[in-house]
What does this fold into?
Amino acid sequence: MDWSKYFIPTLKETPVGTEAISHQLLLRGGLVHMLTSGVYSYLPLGLRVLKRIEAIIREEMNNAGALELFLPVLQPLDLWQKTGRDKTLAEVMIRFKDKRNRDMCLGPTHEEVITDLVKAFVKSYRQLPLNLYQIQTKFRDEIRPRFGVVRACEFIMKDAYSFDRAKEGLKRNYELMYEAYQKIFSRCGLKAVIIEADSGAMGGDISHEFLIPAPIGEDEILLCNQCGAGRSVEGDPASLACSVCQGGKMEKTIAIELGHIFQLGLKYSDALQATFLDEKGDQKPLVMGCYGIGVSRLIAAIVEVHHDAKGIIWPEPVAPFDVEILPLKTDDSSVINLARELENELEIKGWEVLMDDRAESAGVKFNDADLIGIPWRIVLGKKTVTDQTIEIKSRRSGETRVVPIREAISRLQELLTNA
Ligand SMILES: Nc1ncnc2c1ncn2[C@@H]1O[C@H](COP(=O)(O)OP(=O)(O)OP(=O)(O)O)[C@@H](O)[C@H]1O
Ligand SMILES: [Mg+2]
Ligand SMILES: [Zn+2]
It folds into this structure.
């Protein structure tokens, strides 16, 4: 992809009224744009990151046996009245009347819709277990949208819902989701802290939150200063010794919630009378679990963790491009031809390449490259012509290798695959 034909509107200045470093860098790097408070557009570069994260999530969800579907955002309010959540979620729900004067809402979450759907098709224990998920836009009229895509009014969530005959099946599905979440966050370059969340008003049901320590977090957790194990701040305040390792101390830390998994039990199936017939022909309520990941919030969390003073440092698996080629003399056709050859070979090998073909100064190109944070950079400068060498630079370590042109592809291939 040529930068000159692409759309990466980078900004030199930090946009006013932005507190979070991730918010600033996502705006400055031309990845997202604010339409109005809490509502964001994803520009081509941001969309690439989003798609890569979604691909990782899909792969892990599918591996865990979950099936993807796509549920409507537009929902009749009477469905929500049946569970009483038209009231409990009234604060965040976006409601209106349609042209036929029906009360409607834009889905803030999808438990009601999925339970209604499964109820229509699942009649027998033979059709269970079932785990259905989607990657979908959610609408929540947050009182305080903050930190860009971290707390938005329109955002993307992966939400999965499992249906089982009994608690044992739910536990199995829950375990599968727990493991899938660990893989997803680690593939996105994040070390998620998992805490058993307060079951609170939900009664004895089990729930876990996946969080990332970051200064903009809105949750307070206890984190072991030695092994990184996490715990909820609720509970015994006297015991700050870590129960996982020897000698670690639990310290209060601010963290962002990225995922939440929940053993729901019968809450929605009872309210919506979603039942099945067991082996004996008895009618039983479906046993449910739900599993959410804030996909758009994840982008911000990755930037919170992976950046330096100059810009974003994308972890390889979620980077918008794998390699950026930076020919410094765009008016020298021998340099450009070499850059094009490298581009071609890399693309044939399946790597995504961004070519900064703009007739800008080296300074502008380097600054933009640091800002948008593509993991590997190939610079074709003066020495490319005189010494037949190129420079390969790692955005993360800053390490630069000077490599003969004919070895460029094999060296890069090595670096990219071992990353
Ligand atoms: N307003 C929002 N903007 C972006 N992502 C969100 C928002 N609200 C929730 N999420 C993401 O969706 C995931 C699942 O939604 P869930 O309903 O469990 O969140 P929540 O408990 O309301 O989160 P929070 O406490 O942050 O409001 C959350 O873990 C979070 O990553
Ligand atoms: Mg919320
Ligand atoms: Zn510990």
Observations:
- The chain has a mean pLDDT of 95.
